[in-house]
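The aim of this short unit is practical: by the end, you should be able to scan a pair of folded records and say something sensible about each. We start with the first protein, listed as its amino acid sequence and then its structure tokens.
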Amino acid sequence: MKDSDLVQIQRKPQLGDGTEEGAQAADGTGISRRKFLKILGSASATTVAAGCADSTKQKGYPNVKGDINQVPGVAVWYRSTCQECSAGCGITVRTREGRVVKVEGNRDHPINKGGLCALGQASVQALYDPDRIRQPLEKITDPSGASSWKPISWKSAISKAASAISAAQRGGPGGVGFLTGETSGSLKALIESFCGEFSGDHVTYDLLEPVPTAKASELVFGRYGIPQYRFEEAEVVVNFGADFLETWVSPCEYARAWAQSRRGESPSRFIHIESRLSLTGANADKWLMPKPGTEALVALGLLRILLDFGKGQNLAEDVRSQIADLAQSVTLEEVVSRSGVAREKILSVAEYLHRAKSSLVLAGGTAASSSEGLTLSVVAAFLNLVLSNVGKTVELGAMRTPQSSRGKVVQLLDDLSSGKTKVLLVHGTNPAFSLPADYGFQYALKNARLKQKEAGDKEYPIVVSFSSSLDETSELADLILPASHSLESWGDSAPYEGVWGVVQPAMTPVFDTKGIGDSLLEIGAKLGIESIGSGAKDFAAYVKARWKALYSQESLRGDFETWWRGVVEAGGYYRSNASQDRVRVKVNPEAFSIRPKSLEASSRGVDSEGLLLYPYPSVKTFDGRSANRPWLQELPDPMTQVVWDAWAELHPTTAAALGVERGDVVSVENYFGELELPVFVSDHVHPGMVAVPMGQGHKAYGRFAKAVASVGNVFDLLSNESSSGDGVALVGSKVSVKRGRGKHELVVVQGSDSQHGRHLAQTTFLSAATAASAHGEGHGAEHGEGHHAKVKQMFEQRKHPMYEWGLSIDLNACTGCSACVVACFAENNIPVVGKEVCR
């Protein structure tokens, strides 16, 4: 990000600066410099003086007012909680002169323990995004139907939002809907209190939340949620598709624990099972590539083999018997035939699990985001049960509870279409981009506006957005109350029991924005509802009041104010024994009736057999939320080394059959739409599918996101016909892939993806190496120390007898997550140069 993006440069018109104002500034009569020169006809002393005027002077005014308590040049650090995803990592924010300059991990936080992913490192770019919404906006539509945004005051914005809600609730319960991303802590409590006053629904939508895993835990363990996984305690890890080192649940937490398991004399063994090799899979010791949609079948085959080996003797007899009945529903021969995985490989994985004293089985990511996702997750949970992992590497005492619900989103859209829900409030999610178009989000909003007109109601805002950016959903809104960034706001985070993180402002707002909590409290006050926020004057007071209740609940000693100051300084409060609580496992009978089936995939609009579409998230763009960060756009994709682009990943045999190679454009098409993507040929994908990274193809969301708009949005090709538990299915559509027109050269910053026959370590004879390094014989007189001429210096050079800096990387622990690359962008102020310069 350039300095011009961080400050507003205000130039006063200068004589000779090339502007019309500068031209008119020649004198007070309004005679332009050009006319003045024409009158004189030749250069004169006056002209020379005017030509020598310093036109380069400019004044820079910071967007924030400096804190009088800060000393210029001295950094001030604040501890807070990252809000880029739902993991709840602790962060330490570095500020200079009242401005955030760097974000690091909080070493004392129990989740990330000092680590921070690429998305967290790039959060500062969302704060200083030049395309952020700078004040409340109202959409104005002229008689021709063209619409534009009109800046309005906060007083007017709050009044209009309150009026819309008041009008909506007159129609009865359900008139107000609130759609958000994952929330927790005080903000979640305030939103639910707000919705409760209007009998409205708080609906959560986050595409990447592992809902099938949480539902499977409820069926097998008796508790809905994501268990605590102890990678550091596992001798063997078998993973069915969960990209736990990239975007799944809590990557920083898992990466640290996984790295710990890889250190020492007996590192853990890691087997990855997925149809595409992800960055997580690239860190595995062994990769199995089953046919897409057959992962649950492979898991069930492993379960049968382990039961035959005698595992599961610790279980109650009736439970083990019913699990055995489930496992007996398939044979090993059927598993091999349908999945395409060799018998020897499956037996090898089963042997690893059988011999290990402790193990861990996971299922998640895109592999579990299909009609077979819940089945896969249930079988993985049964494997952990049979292997006695519960209580060792799988802890149920403190669980994350994802709130995202496909069913509730569908119901909300139905209510909008029918006119039951008249006003929709949106915060922290972008369904117009990340919800497949087949779900009909835009169609529902269109119907809601038609219902308003048919009812003859006075026109009021249908969609009120609290987004800080003009993303695709905000573009559809009628009123925008821009929320401050989390680095400018108060709040908190409660990812799971025993961990409470504080969110505190590290600087004053860059623009005229408010925290969403403050906006909701002001709307409530405008409506005269004092119960919203329990009478708190602002959201900071509301947060503090809830922490006071936590202080009493935890029976802590001492003065609350003293404790509260300590909590803010530490970045949160953590109860160390929370995850050690023993929980009794209670298997739901429904879990035993689950059976693997054929993958449900829509073939609408596909002429031939087609390929299975396999969208996947990455550390660069996640589900599209980070596409407006130029550091991440310029970050080479860890698996392909591509920057500023999206692509269609095809197996070499598939590419050969289509007659395409890297950079050729292919048409990826089905009933729902068409994308034109460049080909990236890789043997890391199954021949029966085309893998496309998600998150690119924005039509809005700022200049950096729109820079990659031409590739299109992969979510537009997904069907709503299948689901993954209560989650949106990513793997559920087939596409027709055909050669397109022209080339689209991908910018791959890696020179080559081949070793060209060279071994990892080069060897030669010592005598040959000595001869190769010898030089300078016969003219050594003019050479200085080290066989090189000594450079003459004007000043005496400082001696450095000891090395002052060094770096070592444990390649057993490094995952390739690329967070260090983004941190280098930030720490060293490396400019973003764009796609063409990268080329």
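Turning to the second protein, read its sequence before its tokens, just as you did above.
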Amino acid sequence: MVIMSGTATVLQQFVSGLKSRNEDTRAKSAKDLQHYVTTELRELSQDEATTFYDELNHHIFELVSSSDVNEKKGGILAIVSLIGVEGGNATRISRFANYLRNLLPSSDPVVMEMASKAMGHLSMAGDTFTAEYVEFEVKRALEWLGADRNEGRRHAAVLVLRELAVSAPTFFFQQVQPFFDNIFYAVWDPKQAIREGAVSALRACLILTTQRETKEMQKPQWYKQTFEEAEKGFDETLAKEKGMNRDDRVHGALLILNELVRISSMEGERMREEMEEITQQQLVHDKYCKELMGFGTKPRHITPFTSFQSVQPQQSNALLGLLGYSTPQSFLGFGATPVPAKSSLVESRYCRELMEERFDQVCRWVLKYKTSKNPLIQMTILNLLPRLAAFQPHTFTDQYLSDTMGYLLGCLKKEKERTSAFQALGLLVVAVRTEIHPYLMKILEIIKAALPPKDFAHKRQKTIQVDATVFTCISMLSRAMGPSIQPDIKELLEPMLAVGLSPALTAVLYDLSRQIPQLKKDIQDGLLKMLSLVLMHKPLRHPGMPKGLAHQLASPSLTNIPEASDVGSITLALRTLGSFEFEGHSLTQFVRHCADHFLNSEHKEIRMEAARTCSRLLTPSIHLISGHVVSQTAVQVVADVLSKLLVVGITDPDPDIRYCVLASLDERFDAHLAQAENLQALFVALNDEVFEIRELAICTIGRLSSMNPAFVMPFLRKMLIQILTELEHSGVGRNKEQSARMLGHLVSNAPRLIRPYMEPILKALILKLKDPDPNPGVVISVLATIGELAQVSGLEMRKWMDELFPIIMDMLQDSSSLAKRQVALWTLGQQVASTGYVVEPYRKYPSLLEVLLNFLKTEQNQGIRREAIRVLGLLGALDPYKHKVNIGMIDQSRDASAVSLSESKSNQDSADYSTSEMLVNMGNLPLDEFYPAVAIVTLMRILRDPSLSNHHTMVVQAVTFIFKSLGLKCVQFLPQVMPTFLNVIRVCDASIREVNGRLDS
């Protein structure tokens, strides 16, 4: 077949990309594969799709089994790209679990890191085997830790434990005690990477246990156990593990203490996160500039998946948050040096109490090893001391500040430790606040020495490199001391600006302008002079200032900044210009220059940042226009720049830029976008080749329909007819899905247009739900649109509830698709909230309460659990007695205790009992009869669910085993089992029919 040969060619392209030695090529191929299987593959026949998946699985197996490390990495990325994709999920997930299992341990640490992260994603797939999978992997990892030392296995084990603790906390928590019993074997390992990996897993577990603390629970032993293990590391008399020296043991103990203090002081961690974010931004910028230098003057190609696949616009922010589209994509950008994910900020009450009791002892241990020559110990101490200061600032200041400052000032003189010492000093200063005053002059001297000297500009030396932690230290100093150090900081401004533009400099200047308002004008003037030189290649000239005077007033430290023709400097300058607060300064000349010169740059990065910056810089002019006195200059600037932005938004060859321009034109610009010439440009964007750009365009136009209805409404009516025609009559599933999503945006953003056409729209949507499309994306989009329509139509939706509710109930119980359940839950909430249809659904649909409670019992995603609670609240309070009567738990004609399972319901309905219902009905039975009854009812529920057909064989085997164990006692369960078995035999395939037949024997 032609399609098959075309599919084979596409598959071969994906596989070639995944085998590439280039990291970016592998990541792009994985993203493209994910896009293909969720779009184009769904348009093929079932046989063609199955053949494609079979071939793809074969290639993935070859990749992960290859001896080439790069091919293994490509195989892992392919697995992650397919997790959560609809169709054959259970079988695929099980196969992928085995592939990843066989990759561990590996001789390559990056492969192990990637495989463990993929296992974390696999545990979030929401499949029925998640609990069993997590339990198996955790137990296997703990066995590897407890067994005789095997370096590869230990390293793999700690990586897997860390990822599962983060990704599947509910299931991991069941194994928490064995974790604490075994993790310290790895903490005492002679290899640094294993020790640090083990402590990273310990951190994830401590966060997990902290989140599950309650006031009523007994004091947990985990924190005490962890502290006692740390204590062993400092005990010289304890026997050493073979191959582990004293320094390794002390390093492990200090790492444990670091984690215990971390979860005992939330406020200190918040400050640390802010500081680390600044240094991280600087590292990312430096790496980015190096990459650009490597590419030369050619514009760097960035795949459009970066913007579109990670954030897809949906019908509402609430639904977007619930669905969480960006989960797998964030992993697909994985490289050898990933940006560290933020850990949750938590504080354990019990651990805090423990550490308060042992605070002096911990401080003495830490300071005892400050003279150690081991660099690992030195780095850990520099990490730990500021945490201890933030934990108990008064005690620390009184007893340990003097020793600590002596140690830190000594570290600042050593080249290797200077970066960490500046960071530690900054955090220490902000922890002890004004108590640092006696050491202030020494600190300022060291900072001055790290910055360029005052005569630096005149000597025309090369640009000096200043570490980002120097700037963060200045920032923390201003937070601690406030305006009292204004004179000292003012002296530092010129040397700081002489260093040149950087993310760290921008961050510290922003902080200084907030903490010391007296310096705001100096900071703004200095930064604008620098930006003028970088972007316009001339000194800053305020409106009305003579040209000659501008050159005279230019700071000597800034005139020698090298001409910034490189992409990195211009991009950073544009970003700074758009994000920094320049109150009281006219930026008109900058916004005009950006629109004239940078929106048409050959470099994609510059065009992208210029579009964002122009939209931000127009805000003051827009406020000026909306005031009482209208400035004609401001009107002209807004009109000119907006016109140029819209031209870029519809003509730029790169879809990322077009998307960025439309996304930046938010509600601030509505009054100007509603002008006829601007609307014409937006109408053109509705024909963009990229669907996500068309989505943004229709959202914007729909929003403007209330501002210029005469111009917009006729166009939108035509658009509505076109969308409905496409939805009803298109033979391509992808087109129908996109039409449903466009309709949802139109409903959400143009309610006045939609309200008169509510009935025909709803009829078309319900028809699509009653005759479900094989493409699950169509069903999901249609259901989400109905949720939006409920908000617009309000009480008018009430008469459709009897048709909609059964469909929503079916989708809420669709075990094969997590996405359907998510959207069905959100839509149910929208329906109930908009129509006031409360309490009554519990009577009409007795299983509704159990279905909603199951979301809370089984779902890992916090957004879904929160939405389930919201829906329960919207549905209202329920009379427990009436509910029990409604579901048949109480027979009003007889005593409730006499109602048995077989009497209160028909044989078929009895399988719908929940465990709690059975406990009430069969409370008088002995446990050896009650437990099999619960098991049989649960197994029959699975057997009657067609979406779980791939589990039916295992169900039959389980029932067979139970009946053999019960002997003659199984007779009482035959009325529940036989009708379901016979029904399955009629409709199932030959293999299951054969297994079903075994029960008869």
